[in-house]
Structures are given as C-alpha cells and as structure tokens.
Amino acid sequence: MQGKGSAISIQHITKSFGSFKALDDVSLDIAPGEFFSLLGPSGCGKTTLLRIIAGFEEPDQGEVLFDGTSVLRLPPEKRPCNMVFQNFALFPHLSVRGNIAFPLKRKGLGKEEREERVDELIRFVELTGHDNKKPGQLSGGQKQRVAIARALACEPDVLLLDEPLSALDAKLRQSLLVELDEIHDKVGITFIYVTHDQGEALSVSDHMAIFNEGRLLQAGTPYEIYESPSTLFTASFIGEGNIFPCTALSSRWDEEDDEWIITVDVPALGRTLEVTDWGPVEDGRRLYFSIRPEKVRIVAGDVDLGPGCFHGIVDEPVYAGYQSKFYVKTDEGATIRVLKSHTTYLEEGPGIEWKDRVSVIWRPADGYLVKEEWHEET
Q: What's the whole-model pTM score?
C-alpha cells in the first residue's frame, strides 16, 4: 500500500458565484506526501478550493498544478486524485465489497485482480468480516473507512477529504482522526483535509492554511500558526487568546537572550508591557498584543510575582476536570482569561473560587504581537 504523493501548486485562484466571491486570489503550495489541512469557518472558501482541485468546479482565473502540470483542462475522473465526501456518498444497495470494487469495475480491472485489490483494501482499513454488510448496517466509523478504501482503490496520488468527520460525535471523531492519520502514514500519498475544527487540524497536519471570507490569511505548521498568528482573525480563531490593542513604544536588542524586546503601551491593561519579537517594530505602530490563557500563571491572593504582575478578582471560574478556566477582572478593569491544568489530585477542588483575590503574570517571551493595524474604532 505504498504510494507517491503529488505536489500541488495553487496559483492565484479566484472564484465567484454571482456577486459572492468564494475565493480571492489564493496561492498555495502543498508538498508531496503531506497531510495538509484547509481550516476556516463555514463559507470561507475551503470546500470551494477542494472542489476546484478535484475538478468539480472551475476557477474564474488561476491555475492548479499537479507535479508542475496543469490539470484544469482535465475532467475529475482523469485527475490523479479522489475525494471522500462529508456524507461518505456510499451506495446503499451495495455491500462493503461492492462499494470498494465500484471504481475498479469502472476502470476495467479483471475480476481476479479486482478481488485481490478489494481484499487488500478491506484488510488495510480493518474491515475484515464486514465484507458483505450494506452501509445501513455499519457504524459511522466503519462507513468512513469504506469511503476511504473506495477512494484509495485506484491508487490516487492525492486524497481530498471534505469534512469527513463532521457528522460523527466528538469522541468518535477523535478516535477516527487518529485512524485517518495512521492511514496517511501507511499509504504515503498527499492528503488535503478540509475542516472547520481547529483541534482536528492542529493535531494531524504537517502544514495548514487559514481561510476567511475567501482569502488565504496564513499558511504554516500548526506550531507556527498557533504560536505566531499573523492576523487578528487567526489569533482569535485558533485556540483562545487574550488580545488587546497596543502601540509600540520602543525596540531594543537583548544580546544575552539573542532576541528583540518590544515595549508596548496597552491601554486596556493600564500599563506598558515588554514582549519579545523576531525583529524591531516601528515606534508608534498600532497592533495587537496577545497572551494565550495557558501561558498565564495564577496564584491565590495579592502576591508580588515580579514586574508585569496583575492583581484582581475571579469574575468567573469554569471547572472542566483536567483544567480550570478563570476570568480574572484586574484592578485596572481588564478581563484576563487563564487556563490552569490540574496535574495533581485535587482533594478539595481547584483551590481558587469565585470572587477570590488572585495574582497573574506571564513571561515577556510568552506574549506575541499580531502585526495587523488597529484603529480607535476597533
């Protein structure tokens, strides 16, 4: 079951449906064999791009290349890719074996070769013993595996997956996501995965792209996008963040730690802060300061934790078993969200309760600057 994935190059793709612009000058490169996710809210253009790659939609302008060769003039069945749809699109009257064999029959494979290939795929997706069941007799996870096996039957170079887990419950989605990642590792071809679930994309992707309103906002590794979002939308959409407008006051080079330290004025927090960055920032530039809730330290009481410490009251504690989320109203009037993991046994609960006085702090290296300009009306 070893495959060779194709490199995909999306070049200046634009697509409109009437007055609605679904994709706006999107360019993107996907390396061969990658698990690449297209992530964004409903209506952002990610599924439209997937359908253009597959050949089900034609772009208004732009180019789609597989291994450097244009595929825009090829019909879907001639492109070296296949798609797994959101509802799996299995034939209800055919058995597991019949569904998987269907594309092989259309391809003209002889019966003996076809049966060998179906047997191989049934073993590969671990459906041995379910050969003769109809889709109505299968669980959601089993249906997904049949759909994947059918899509892999003709050995495509690229597998396109359009939110294949969205109809399943949360616990099953997580389990099948791991299975999907294992299948990708085994088969070795390029996977392009569309989802609106950031957790799914972050956990399985080699690289991912963030879309909103038809525009590609950022592409990179999950780590790069989570730790260093380039736009306010990405910072807000991926994970949770405390995000505040700020103005850069000065930049200085720290030779000891080999990094730039930017001093910013954050009106909502009522003070200036230091944050590290990759380079200097123009004095007076208006941007956003953000700190992830899990990077904020919280302790009970008014404690001096050092420079940058805030004091306040717990406005709302939210206990979630493995962690607690605290909404802390600082004495300056800002609300800071904090996530505290529970790494030890809690005999009497989290220890911090509603209306408790607390102190919070974070390291300058843990904050980041979103380089999107802000204005007073923001």
A: 0.90
